[in-house]
Design brief:
This protein has 139 residues and is mainly α. It has helices spanning 3-6, 9-38, 45-70, 74-93, 102-138.
């Protein structure tokens, strides 16, 4: 049995794509923060630098999860699911801020929900294929 027959390439690729796009968006936010830092708009230099570093760590994690998800690695899917749940929770929590910034709610919530659904679907498909392969090998 080849590696391709165990994984669900379409679902894994789609889930990895969502994770990679989310990572790229975080890199864009880092660039925006760096420009603001350079123009002197930061209220607190240490806080701004810490925020930039944390965002870069998050982007790196998303890129790692994307690469691992594409290869069918369980740790990557698990980490991706956790970050998608956090994105959904953040989008829902932002509904309590008045006025509601709908662009943020949809911009964070929809990709989070889409990524969550794709990661779960990919995991279920792979588990089903592995179970069927195990049944065939026992026969």
């Amino acid at each position: 049995m080849t590696d391709q027959s165990v994984r669900s390439p379409a679902l894994a690729t789609a889930a990895a794509g969502v994770l990679a796009i989310e990572g790229a968006v975080l890199v864009v936010f880092v660039l925006i923060d760096l420009f603001e830092l350079g123009s002197g708009e930061a209220a607190s230099l240490p806080t701004a630098i810490a925020l930039i570093v944390l965002i870069l760590i998050g982007a790196g994690a998303l890129f790692a999860f994307a690469a691992g998800t594409r290869r069918g690695l369980m740790w990557a899917r698990s980490g991706g699911v956790v970050l998608q749940v956090l994105a959904i929770a953040l989008a829902l929590a932002s509904l309590t801020v008045q006025p509601v910034v709908w662009a943020f709610v949809f911009g964070v919530g929809i990709p989070g929900l889409l990524g969550f659904i794709l990661l779960i679907a990919s995991t279920r498909k792979e588990a089903r294929v592995v179970a069927e392969a195990d049944e065939d090998s026992e026969s």
